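3.2 Worked example (two chains)
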Amino acid sequence: MLERAIRESEVIKEDPDYNTLTSDFFYYTGRYYKKMIDPDPEKKPWDYQFFDTGIKEKRWESLLKNAGIFTPNSRKIMRRMKDSGGEASCIELARKYGGKWQDYSNESVALAKRVRDKTGCGIVHVADDKVKYWPILFVGKKAETNEEGAYTWKLRDELQDALNKTDLSDVPLYEPGMQQVSQEVNQAEESIAEVQTVGENLIAQNAEQESEPYSKENFLHDVYLTERDFEALTGLLTRKKNIILCGAPGVGKTFMARRLAWTRMGAKDNTRVESVQFHQNYTYEDFMMGYRPEERGFRLQEGVFLRFAKRAAQDPGHDYYFLIDEINRGNVSRIFGELLQGIETDYRGMPVTLQYTGQPFSVPKNLYLIGMMNTADRSLAMIDYALRRRFGFFQVKPAFDSAQFTEYGEELHSEAFDRVIDSIKKLNKDIKDDTSLGEGFQIGHSYFCNMEPDTISDELRSVINYDILPTLKEYWYDNQEKVEKWKDELQRDLD
């Protein structure tokens, strides 16, 4: 009675004579005893483990000898499942032994139907009068995050026992050429895992020993930002978890991004910072996951963001920062794919389904995204609305009038430097007032940072001739007179 109650609680039987009262009795009794047998909710029991086909070990041994039921392809699957310890997903079988994962799924269902036709065993009914045949052979469950494939099968105990007594040595374990590939892949994975483990340990040791403290005061000294703007910036990052530093070239966006991460971590710890640069050919496969060519075919590999996000998820006690330079140079919707929802603050920790594996994945709450966007590149399309909703935008402006830059200029003791900076301020006003340009095209202060008093004349001349003037020629390609005017004025400042 107990076994029947458990079985009926999992499976809707075909018998039309079952009345509602009987069904309800078995359903609730089965659920009650199932909790007694398997009380641990974290255990994630196998699906259909309480469904009983009625086929015992001896009957499976007989069926395995029937070539009309267990065809050569079916016997391949059985041997490969047995070799895998009786538990694997279709993708894992295809990757290790060869063939397509769809073939493993389709052939298993076909085999189960043949077994059903031969034995008349019970089957699993689901909604809309649909039938699941594979539970005749397997129990199953969603694959773990570290496993390949969306769903894992496990041989039923009776079938596993029968297979252990069946000689399958005449069945090829691998598809032609796959044995060597499988061995090479396993060796490569072991080597990579060993290198990664050693590398991560060394990084962790170095981080503990050598991480230099980094504070708000350090940030304000290095980055020419006011304290008020700093508070606004950090508040925005805390609230949105995803921000974009936008501004013209030379305002220090990339320099600022890494130091913002250091400030929030309290140390110059680059082990928890990852950076990439988007470009027109950057893809979802680079970012999240995709197939990569190898000597003998293709292999599914994780992208830089997925790897980094998994690291962050395994270390919830620390914040992690992912920096994206030139974020508006890539096709952001295609690169992020299904993650455009997953990166939102309200959806952090909630799973989305990955397109290549069908597995759930969630962006951890301790992972922050900082993008950098060049507002002066005419070749770039506008950021789409989907991205704007998910990122907070912080405008980074030239800091020539900041207290930090003023102090830096005074320490150089250079009249030429002072004249050039005064002219750049006037130039920026001209750029800002130009309706075809605007504030986002102004000249940034970082062009003039880190100059040395002994070589400042040569450095200023180089910046003006090879950075500033080419930029002005691009801005005012249709107004040569204005370009010449500013060229004359800036070069006079050098004399």
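3.2.1 Second chain
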Amino acid sequence: MRVYELLNRFLPESYTAKFVAILAAALAMPVLSALLVPTDRTAGIVALIAAAVVAGIVAQRSIAELLSPLEKVSDSLQRTEAGYRARPLPECYRDELGLLMECANRMAVHLDAQLHIAAQEAERDPLTGLLNRRGLERRMPATRPGAILVIDLDRFKDINDAFGHSAGDRILTHVSDLLATTFRSGDVLARIGGEEFLACLPGASLEQGRQAAERIRIALEDRILIEGRPVTASIGVACGHRGVAGWQVLEAADRAVFQAKSAGRNRVVCAKALSSDSDRGAGPTGFLLQRPGG
């Protein structure tokens, strides 16, 4: 942008005037050569041709330099279109190119904000506003996730059958609100199935996870009712140590939920302690094992 910067000192208001200045300088070079060369006809023709060639080369390179800022604008727009964060363009110029760079910056900022919103929405459950499985994958620590709680509402199909899906949806939103106000701000909360929720408590021990699960179980039973009937949950808790993959902890918590269901529901079951040697093998294709619902 050296040529553009130089011409901008003298012609700051017009991009077109900068082109005209380059062309005028190129045309002036042969004229000056004709005035300065010897009067010999042959020498004059040679000098005129040489001056015209030099003028053409200088004009071509100067115009290319003058157009180089447009390449930056094009690169910025292409990065924006591809979904990448665009590099900010300078906004200190007052000519047509300066206005174009300002417009490209505004468009890049606007599109970046829209893409950020869309990415967030793609990672959120539309009903509860909690993370969905995709969002959970991005935010749950891959190793040493702390305590993981899998919360499965009891006999939720019966609620839908007896009171309708709209009532079931209201229950789910109430449960998500309760979870959001109960856990710490650094904990990861997600809805991972129809009536299944997950809480990841980074740095928490198994006992801390069990205590948190009991608080949630009691709060659900005391505070969320439908037609006077309490909503209960079976909760599985697992905790991983150094070297234990997050998916292993999650599977252990899921198995603990199954045990809570089998033992009569509305209870907390803790999985046995996991070590780096337990359950070795390839990770599962999904988050949760298949099990009987309810």
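3.3 Remarks
The CA atoms of residues 172 and 194 lie 9 Å apart.
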